[in-house]
Design goal:
Shape of chain A: globular
Structural class of chain A: alpha/beta
Radius of gyration of chain A: 13 Å
Low-confidence stretches of chain A: none
Number of helices of chain A: 5
Strand content of chain B: 15-25%
Largest interface: A-B, 19 and 29 residues
Helix content of chain A: 40-55%
Number of strands of chain A: 5
Largest sheet of chain A: 5 strands, parallel
Largest sheet of chain B: 5 strands, antiparallel
CATH architecture of chain B: 2-Layer Sandwich
Number of domains of chain B: 1
Helix content of chain B: 25-40%
Strand order of the largest sheet of chain B: 2-1-7-6-3
Number of domains of chain A: 1
CATH architecture of chain A: 3-Layer(aba) Sandwich
Mean pLDDT of chain A: 93
Number of helices of chain B: 7
Distance between the termini of chain B: 53 Å
Strand content of chain A: 15-25%
Strand order of the largest sheet of chain A: 2-1-3-4-5
CATH topology of chain B: Beta-Lactamase
CATH topology of chain A: Rossmann fold
Oligomer: heterodimer
Distance between the termini of chain A: 13 Å
Structural class of chain B: alpha+beta
Chain lengths: 123, 184
């Protein structure tokens, strides 16, 4: 069965780029959301195998969305990778406190992204 | 490690992983610009492209007036547009290059780890052999070490293709331009 990734970002450009890379370079299927609130809802609906999520977003940020997903039965164990422009130690620490499994910074290196996702989902 | 861009095609197989990733980046940038609803959305697209691909959250977009003697800020992010004067940061030669259609890139000084300080890029947004606006990419995020070869390809795409979504079919017509593109 095809594995599914929920890609979350309020930047259309980032969504296009990540989707383009993941769908062309891997066998995974992508679904998208444009803020944390929509991500929480889609995660319940779509039950993705991995969530790739921006942090700074309107309505609900990635940290909050991550915390909520960790409390919900369907997404408690789902790997969550946060993607953001902020690379400061304190920020990364806050990401892990919210329950994420991994953290990558923008600008995203496509090869690094593919390798990271494959490390969770296999090839 | 070679990866196929278009799975199973010989052409795709010839692309290196880095080339394919760069192509994906250029395609996404082009699509974002093409899908812009209006000028405001196109400016937002440029902001997203700078943040996502160039590693910068400080940009300014300046419309060139008819004779390139002044520049009107039509979009900015992460800078105070009232405090920023393009004419104070680019010299005459740099402006001449921009008006001719060449990018003006300052690579900055490098620290011992190779990270560039004060790297900035100025990209002419062109249509019909005229520079209609200048996109200034003013500071790189700490994790982005410097502008690289793939950034130059993105600059070219922006230079060639951003004018239409930004200015539609109108833009402006230039008058009284000397050979260099800058009136003395």
């Amino acid at each position: 069965m095809t594995k599914k990734i929920l890609v979350v970002d309020d930047s259309k450009t980032a969504l296009m780029m990540e989707r383009e890379i993941l769908e062309k370079r891997t066998s995974y299927q992508c679904v998208t959301a444009c803020d944390g609130q929509e991500a929480v809802e889609k995660a319940q609906l779509e039950r993705p195998d991995l969530v790739l999520m921006d942090v700074v977003m309107p309505r609900m940020n990635g940290f909050e969305a991550c915390k909520i997903m960790r409390q919900q039965v369907g997404t408690r164990e789902t790997p969550i990778v946060l993607v953001t422009t902020r690379g400061e130690e304190s920020y990364i620490e806050a990401g892990f406190q919210s329950g994420c499994n991994d953290y990558i910074t923008k600008p995203v290196d496509g090869a690094e992204l593919v390798a990271l996702v494959e490390s969770y989902l296999g090839k | 490690m070679a990866m196929n861009e278009d799975k199973g095609t010989a052409a795709g197989a010839k692309l290196s992983g880095a080339d394919a990733m760069n192509d994906a980046r250029l395609r996404a940038a082009r699509k974002r610009l093409e899908e812009s609803r209006d000028q405001e959305d196109a400016i937002e697209g440029l902001r997203e492209i700078a943040a996502t691909f160039l590693g910068s959250e400080e940009i300014g977009l300046f419309r060139v007036d008819g004779d390139a003697a002044s520049f009107e800020v039509i979009g900015s992010f992460g800078i105070d547009p009232g405090e920023y004067n393009l004419l104070h940061v680019i010299d005459k030669q740099g402006l001449e290059r921009l008006m001719r259609g060449e990018c003006h890139i300052e690579f900055g000084t490098r620290d011992r780890l190779g990270a560039a300080d004060k790297a900035q890029a100025f990209i002419p947004i062109r249509r019909a052999n005229q520079t209609m606006a200048i996109l200034a990419v003013l500071r790189l995020l700490p994790q982005k070490i410097a502008f690289d070869k793939s950034d130059m390809e993105l600059f070219k795409l922006l230079s060639d293709e951003a004018a239409l979504p930004l200015f539609g079919g109108s833009g402006h017509s230039k008058t009284e331009i000397d050979e260099s593109g800058i009136r003395a």
